[in-house]
Structures are given as structure tokens and as C-alpha cells.
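Hello,

Following up on my earlier ticket. Below are the four sequence lines again, exactly as submitted.
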Amino acid sequence: MAFTSEEMMTIAAARALKNDDVVFVGIGAPSAACNLARMTHAPGLTLIYESGTIGTAPTVLPLSIGDGELTDTALTTVSVPEMFRYWLQGGRISVGFLGAAQIDRFGNINTTVIGDYHRPDVRLPGGGGAPEIATSCHQTFVMMKQSRRGLVEKVDFVTSFGHGDGGDARQNAGIATKGPTLLITDLAIWKPDSKSKEFIVSAIHPGVGAEQIQESCGWPVRYAENVATTEPPSQEELLVLRDLNARTKAARERPLAMKMARRASTAG
Amino acid sequence: MAFTSEEMMTIAAARALKNDDVVFVGIGAPSAACNLARMTHAPGLTLIYESGTIGTAPTVLPLSIGDGELTDTALTTVSVPEMFRYWLQGGRISVGFLGAAQIDRFGNINTTVIGDYHRPDVRLPGGGGAPEIATSCHQTFVMMKQSRRGLVEKVDFVTSFGHGDGGDARQNAGIATKGPTLLITDLAIWKPDSKSKEFIVSAIHPGVGAEQIQESCGWPVRYAENVATTEPPSQEELLVLRDLNARTKAARERPLAMKMARRASTAG
Amino acid sequence: MARFQDLKDAIGENIEDGFTVAFEGFTNLIPYAAAHEIIRQGVTDLHLIRMTPDLIYDQLIGMGRVRKMTFSYAGNPGVGLLRRMRDAVENGWPRPLELEEHSHSAMAQAYEAGAAGLPCAIFRGYKGADLPKVNPGIKFITCPFSGETLAAVPSLTPNLTIIHAQKANRKGDVLVEGILGVQKEAALAAKCVVVTVEEIVDSFSGVHPNACILPAWTIQSISVVPGGAHPSYAHGYYDRDNAAYLEWERISSDRAVFLSWMEENVLNADPNCFDLRVERMRRSAA
Amino acid sequence: MARFQDLKDAIGENIEDGFTVAFEGFTNLIPYAAAHEIIRQGVTDLHLIRMTPDLIYDQLIGMGRVRKMTFSYAGNPGVGLLRRMRDAVENGWPRPLELEEHSHSAMAQAYEAGAAGLPCAIFRGYKGADLPKVNPGIKFITCPFSGETLAAVPSLTPNLTIIHAQKANRKGDVLVEGILGVQKEAALAAKCVVVTVEEIVDSFSGVHPNACILPAWTIQSISVVPGGAHPSYAHGYYDRDNAAYLEWERISSDRAVFLSWMEENVLNADPNCFDLRVERMRRSAA
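Thanks for your patience. The regenerated structure is below:
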């Protein structure tokens, strides 16, 4: 089956999740990847959204981090202070997903400003949960489409610490967790070099060429000794993902139909 | 109607509570006083027990701080960390009740040890919530029967700070709340002198003589300029208190009868 | 002790120009009706606090009512940026906006510390991040036992916290269900609390013993405003109007379109329009 | 990930001599059955943590299994003192007992800090009190913003926390209702968590969305022990056996009476006796 680069990215990210992982999910691409994993090879995967919902299993993808569907399908919903204190800071999350407006080769991420902080060219949304997701989860996975504006030599602002300037930077900063262990883009899978911690390409998605990877990356790309080709999406993966996206689209076009019915049954 | 000195003590304490007070209730005499107030002149009184129950209205007095009756009648029940953080430390309690094994003239209280801390003659239960009740509630009321062993020149251990060595001791210790404003005994009502903060007798219960007060007090008793006689218990106060005590006694003799019936109705 | 008032009086009597105000509600239960009433009443120079400013603050900022904002994520969740807030920060339109920026973890714990009556929160945060370089309100302390360096932020203690909740009972106790966000903490941290609710019920008997309930004596004012969280949602009553969030991208992209939308939908709107908006969604979904 | 085991294995596989163990449950849901199993298995040299030691620790101390106790109120609530604990402290019988003493506020917040992954808790406490003079584990820090002196205590992080709860579902998630005490915090602060429950249900569907639930992946072992909190109570199942608490005063006053009671009711008791004890209460109440 034919597939898009975005589908490949989502499926590659889903595959990186294990059945017993506890994942701090972000909105957008990570949410699709985590729910895809849950609907395919990792039915035991625990999804946690920062809105306080623990163990959610939505049938459609939430638009925001706190849609009603998340509470309705959650094992339990806790307050946001509890979420950040007991669950994230408490060290109970095995994988945190992060997105980025800018990322550098060491996995440092900017989602705060383009330009100077006090006189920004573009004011981005800011860190949200990311600064502590980056340091409290056992490891983090980053998902983003490649572009020269996104994969940069140096980020304008370190919203979330990755491997700093590489090597032992995390330990030196007093951080005990692994940090970014995976960068999944629309073109390739990147992993940090075991010593320098620089992201190097470990697998290239089917049909992607090396020049395409370099053209959309602001630093000189390095490759692992044995670069693999990413296994193409299976039919099951594609069908489940497309079903999920179709259900999500339909639900957003008529966001209230099913919910109002639910209300009628409980509040009637 | 005739009454006992213990009834007088409970009724005098109940009268000191206002309808809009939020009270941190202790077990035993304070619990009787607070519930009596709620059942008579202060129906709006909010009772909080340190077990996390907010706005309880038990029909019988709980034996412990966390009997099921408290949850069953509470507006809501929160965790114990929340109780101590948001509700006590958050400064939301207007009156805290304290009991004492020993108290001195400045309202410093000992419920920890008699004798040396490390080699005690008697090991008492310890502070429980008292050290912070004493400093976080807007004011505290102390209830205890008078005796030479209880009202002492100097407490063996300051479990809960009152007015220290008197005067501005609380401000000097960085405490913003009023501390002990009332000592209610089986013989009299004591209030701190406005300057020295020493407890002085402000009202004597009916039928009690000055020598009785001094005999059961380890420091030289001082009196307010105009010492009143405590208003004797009204018939309503006595009847409501005796009813409450009778219901409590009956419930303790057959603690399970009514509860099992309740269970059958919810878990059947 | 909570008083039941209409929304106009609840806002009019409890807010002043220059106040520090937290409107909380995490996706669920965002108090839009109260914010619109504040805009209609002309209140200005506000210092707004909110973890996720959302459309509610984009509207207040775009109308020039905000002097300063304390926040941790300023986006239209799942859609994009907050364009009125960006315009204020990047171009000073309609007035410059001072920012005090934190992470979610910091803000959640700073509200928690506020509710707990403490002057600051300590937490394991901001390690390696640049925010402490630009926010002097972030400091560090050393744990006296482990020697670990921990971040510290001042607790959040708004003059006024406004929340929307599902129910009040006749005594004025307030029940919050579903995603709880930081509402309880923001309310208990504030000097004054105004609540809008979907409905008043006789009592909370039968509600779970550990449900999130704010006693009447922690609240100043309660107004019944059905639909008052639209276009966010009220768990158990109506769903999030995701279409309105998507549409905001278009409305907020242009100053003139924004102003005319606000004129029609806020300044000239009936305070009771929220119930009708939810009813309209209900009918179109039927 | 939680495994369902019988109580003997759950205890045998998760505890060792010398462990730091918290048995929590605040009046409601005190895990007596688990404590009795530990006594039967001969585990010793324990460092016990508990806000309100209650009869459960009086029994462990009286049997000589306890080296040290961290606590904040050691009484038989509403009845009097803990006589076995007093005998250990005052007379070293059957062995000396090291005490680490705190206030409730300190312990509750130290558990909370443990659950939150922090090395210490800071709070407004111990002002003017003597406890900091005799407990070197109490220190003070200065708030970097207000300059206020705040108390600091190390977080509590037991090797093992044992709690009793109402229900587990088939996946091993655990539901706690009523007085919640510090169970959630004590569980999340511990390296290992063992839970006894009244019953297993198919699912928690229909339970309130904000109920206190510990996910299966925070728990090591679950045992079904109906009545396992007797003589404390299980909200919704059976009431506190106040008569047993009153009777303990007599039993614990005398070493020989205590030992023979323990022999009969713990050492030689069937692990499943708790259900029968509650049944007996039920019949006598009918």
C-alpha cells in the first residue's frame, strides 16, 4: 500500500512504544502515534495526558489536551498539580513525547521564541509541560517534520534541555534521566551517538534519499555505521491509522452529535 | 437542672463557637462541644476533622478522628496531605481545639512526654496535628480538667507553642495567628491577659470556689478585674448534650447494627 | 460565604481595574461568560494568570484590557498560536503586554503552594532550560538533606479567581467534575472567588464522598450561567465546540475581523446568550 | 505490574528483615491482615512508618519485630495510650524502640514529597515547638522570595508500603474510597506496594471520574482478604469495631495477657479469619 511521509513518521513512532510503557502524550502527531500503538501491537500501553487523565483510550484523537473523550475513557482523572507532582516529577513516566519549532543536533528544543526573547520575531506558545517532561521522563521521543527552519545549528532559546552541548552535559546539569533517545521525522529515524550524543541517522524511511535529509537539516548530517531502511508501514498499521484519522475528522465535523446523545442518557 | 462540672465545661466551650466559625475538632471533649454548638445556637458551624472530613454533621460522637459516620455526613472528604496543606496551613480554620496533658500559664502545651524526652517517665501519644493547629488556626481554644499535674508551672516539653514566655513571644517567633485565646476547664473560663498573655480567670463556673481553682493549678492564680459567674447550662443545652451522649453510648455498645443495615442497602 | 448573584453584579462587585485575576479551567470548564462580562464592564489594566491562556485571554488581550500575563503555554490547543496575544507581544497592538513565563509544572505547583498558604513552591524543574535566564521570578534552593539543587517559584495568589463549575447546591457549595485542572488550587489561593455554574441543585447527597467540592465559605459569589463555558465544555453537560476553536484561527488573524466579531458576540451580546449558543449546537447536532 | 497472589506469598516475596515499611490507612482501611501475616512469618528488625501507629503497630512492637518507628501520634484513638509501645520506650520490653517523631503536618507533607519525587518537603511548621530540638531530621530553610523561615523534613520513601483498599479490578487497578488518609501518597512514595482488598470486580466503569485509583502498574502485589482491615473499617463494607479498640486497653495493659492474645488471635490464627470476624460482628448486630 502507498503511504505518505507523515503516515510513515507516525507509524515509526508508534513502533517505538512498548506494551508496558507509560507515555506522557502530546497533542497532534504524538497523540496519533500513541493511540496507533495502543490499537495495534501495544494494547497495554498507558496513555497519560497532562490534563490529568491517566490510562485513556479515546476512540478518536482529541483536538486539545483535555477533550471530554479523554476523561470518559480514562481510568481516573487527577488534578493538574497532582499530575505534575506525583506522576511526572514522581518519575513514573517511561516515555515523554516532545514536538519542536526548532531542534539542534543535541536534541535541545525551542518552542518559545524566534529571535530575541524580549523582542521576538515570532512569539511561539512557550514550554507548557515540556521543560520538565524533558528531564523527568525516563526518556523522550521527539517527532517533527524536517526543515531547515526546524533542524537548526543552534536553537534561539532552550525551552527544553536535551543533551546540551553533548557528551555528559545532562549528568553535569544534575539530570538523571536519559533525555532524547529518538528523533522521528518524516524522512528518517535519528538516535544519539552513544558518546557525543549528537543525533545521527539510524534508519531512512523507504524512498527517501540522503540529499533530501541534508537539504532539510541545518547541520551536517552524520549517519550510523549501518543505516537501515525503515520497515514500510504494514497494511494493518495503515488501515488502523487511517480509520483513526477518519473517525477523528468525522467527529470534528459534528463534534456534538454523539456527545449530546450521551448527555441525554445521563442527565435525562 | 443539676449538672456535672464536665457538662459545664462542654457547654461553656460550645458557647464560645459562632455560627460562621470553621473549627478543627479534636476527639473527646472538643468533639462534644463542637457538635453541641452545631445542634444548638450554631447550626451553620463547619466542623473539620483532621482525617480529611470537611463539614461533618455526625448524629453520634465519633470514637476516633476518622469514624465512618464522619465521611457519611461530610460535605466532602479530602486526603490528609490536602487537609494539612490547603485547609489548616492555608489559614482557613478560624478555631482549633487543643487538649493537653500539661499546660502552663502561657498556654504552652505538652502531650509528648513526662520527664526527659529521651528517657521519659511517661511516654504520651505525641503532637499529632497540634503543633501546627497551634500556629495555623486563627485562634485556639484549650479544654481540660484542672489538676496540679495538668496546670503546671513549666511544661516538660513544648509540643505546641502557646504564648511562649508571654508578651510578644508569638510575633517574635514569626507566628501571625492569635494562639490560645480561651482555656475552658471544669472549674472556670480563662483568658490571656492582653499584655502579659498569662491566662487569668475571667469567669468561674457556678458553685466553684476560688480555693478549688488554686488547689488544682500549679501556678498562682490571677483573676480578671471583674470576674463573672458562668451562666449555668440552660435546659436546652443540657438536654441536647445528654441526648448526644446517650446516642453515642448506645451506638458504641452496638457499633455495627445500624451500619450493617446501611451496607445491605448500598452493596446489596 | 457565597452569595447568589446575577453575573453582572458578581463581576461588578468583585473586580477592579489593575487586579491580578486568574480565570482557570483546563480545557474543561473555562469561564468564558465571566470574561465576556468583564469585557462589557470595561475593566482594564488587568494582570492575568492562567496556565493555558486559550481564546479567553486572546480576547481580553485583543480588547486592550491586559497589562501583564503570567502563563505557561499560550496556544490555541491543537490549532496553533494565539494571534491577538502575538500581536500584542510582537507589535504592541493594541497595547504592549508584559509577560511572566513559566512551565506548566512551575505554575501548577505555584498555585498549589498558594492554596497551601506557603510563600513559594520548590520542585525539580527548569534544569538546563533558558527560562530562568529571562524570568527573575525563578530561583534555586539547596535541599538541606540531599544537597540537590531545586527550583523555587513564588506562590500564585490572585486578587480574584474566576471558575466555571457544573453545580452549586442551595447552600452555595460548588461541585467540579471531570478534568479538574488547577481550579481548586487557584480558588483556594485567591483572596476572592467568583464561580459561574451550569445549575443549582438541592443537595449533593449521592455525590461521591471524595468528589472535588469547594465549600460555600471559600467562595464570595455564585452566578447561574448555563453554557457559560462555551466554546470550552462542561463535563456531563455539553461538549467542546472544536469548530469554534478552529474558526478562531480565522477571526483572530485580522484586527478588523477580530474587533467586529467581539462587537457582535461580546460587547453587544446578551449575558444570557451562552445557553442559546449551546442550545444551537445541540439542535444542529440532533 | 500488579500480580494477584495469596497473602502469604504477597508478604513473603516483598518484605525482608530490616525493611522500612509503611502500613497506612487513616482509621478507615488499616491493613491488619497483612500485619498479622508479617508477624506469623517472623519478619523482624523493621523500621515502621505511620502517622497514627494505632493497635497495628502496638502489636508489631509488642512482638519484638520493630527496631525503629517514625510517627506523629501514638495513641489508641479516643481510648488512650499504646501500652505495648510505651513498654518498649519506657522499659525496653521486649526490646528498645528507637523513635523518630514528627507532627501530622510534617509526616503528611513528607509522604506527599515522597510521592512527588522530591527529596524534602517544606512547610510552615514546628514554630516554637520543642520537637526540632530532639529530632535532627527537622531543619529550616529561608524562602528565597519572602525571607520567611520554613520547616523542612526529608521525604518519606519506604521500601514497602502496605495498604488495604475496597476493590481491585481484574487488571489490578485499585480503588480507595471514604477517608483517604495518606494511602495514595504512601504508595507512590514507596519502592514496592502490596495491597489487600475486600473484593475483585470486573471493572471500574461507573465509578466517579475523579475517584482515588492506583493504576496496576504502581503496585506489585494484590491479595483478596475480605475483612482485612478489621478491627478498623472498610468504608462501604463494614464499620469500625470500636468495642475491639476499647478492649485493647485491657489486653495491652499486661504483657502476659497480650502475649496469649497474640498467640491465639494472630500466631495460631487462620489467615482467612478476618472475613469470619466481620461475619461474626454482622451476625451479632443483626
